[in-house]
Design goal:
The protein has one domain. By secondary structure, the protein is α+β, with helices and mostly antiparallel strands. The chain has five helices and two strands, in the order βααααβα. The chain is elongated and about 40 Å long.
Length: 68
């Protein structure tokens, strides 16, 4: 199962930019379930963004998604 994550900024871009480096570093270590990743994201913790997670089960082209 795949997940589509939509991130909506909830503060000004100036506020978001203060957290962007921590957010990017955090996403470089996705070793947990998506809900845990969302809940501990520096964007969420700083209140600058919210995530919406949508389950996605591709029926064609899946083999290309798993290619590195």
């Amino acid at each position: 199962m795949y997940v589509i994550a939509t991130v909506r900024y909830r503060k000004s871009i100036d506020e978001v930019l203060k957290v962007v480096d921590a957010h990017r570093a955090y996403l470089g270590t996705p070793d947990a379930e998506m809900l845990a990743i969302r809940d501990h994201d520096p964007y969420v913790l700083a209140g600058v963004a919210q995530w919406e997670l949508l389950p996605w089960n591709p029926v064609s082209g899946k083999e290309n998604l798993d290619r590195a």
